[in-house]
Design goal:
Keywords: Metal-binding, Oxidoreductase, Zinc. By secondary structure, the protein is an alpha/beta fold. It contains 10 helices and 19 strands. Helix 4 packs across helix 5 and helix 4 crosses helix 9.
Amino acid sequence: MCLDNGLLRGVGSSRCEEQPPTPTTVTFVDMPEIQVFKGTPEGKVIEATHTIRDIKPDEVFIKVTHCGFCYTDIHYLKAGNVLGHEPVGIVEEVGSECKRLKKGDVVGWGYLHDSCMECEMCMTGREILCAERKMYAYADLDMGGMGSGYIGKEKYVFKIPKGLAPADAAPLMCAGATVFAAIYNNNIKPTDRVGVVGIGGLGHLALQFLKAWGCHVAAFSGSDAKKAEAEHFGAREFVVTRVAEDEEFQIEEKFDFILSTVAGQIPWAKYMRCLKPTGTMIPLGLSSDPDMITPYSDIIVHELKVSGSLVASRHVQNLMLEFAARHGIKPQNEIMEMTADNINDAADRLHKGDVRYRFVLERK
């Protein structure tokens, strides 16, 4: 419809008001099937196929090339959902409302799939804490990183910076985001002394990020078996934690922060005695034991803090990827072809802690 707009824009001028185009879905002509790998009630991973639905205007379809195998996936081996939340791939199709991504972009996504974008948490950039968040293993159960394709919201898909190989970027989508968010959101400073408990999938990345951040970093590990590797990743101090129950850890000085990256409970009181007054303990590893036993009196007397940390918000995720690319931070990977046999083998080895330091599944 054409309206006379002379009063607003000058005599003789006119403006045609066009209705905005109606958002459209991307319809696949032949509705292709995707290959996926999911758990079973017996805890074994099987291969299956799913037919892809149409892409909504704000979504993209991604062809998966790599996916990290995180210990969190172990918790869902019997749940029946498609596994994998550390994927990287190539954008194949984009919805009509997508503006940031285009076909051919190398991208990744992680734990968070969607949120309401209207609550206090979303409006303040903490959408990972949204009460209506849609997370891995609780939403989009028929698609995941361990598969040939994925449909996701554009706003929760991240471009991989140049300088980060897809296989290296994959574990950063969860493991990297987890440790970087703990550093960034807790305002850790380059002058801080920071301890990292556990030199595994999360820990070896935490050491690298904290070294690049400028901190004095100490690695806490059960024995000195990983001492040389920990020092290579950035540790300036190494603390052996397998000591007698009544014996304290031998540290150079106390710490401003300690990050626990192990998947389980630790003797919190002993570690928290390694903190300076006002120091902060940050647990990051998921545990099947829900109870954290902490030294109540020490927390009060020394004004210690325990700070929970999940994974990164979208803004912090992008900062993490840029920081990793700039400083050459990357996981130490064992790459294997994405097959059911290999996934089951990797799951068995993860249970035993037999990996240095991340499994990455690659589609051939």
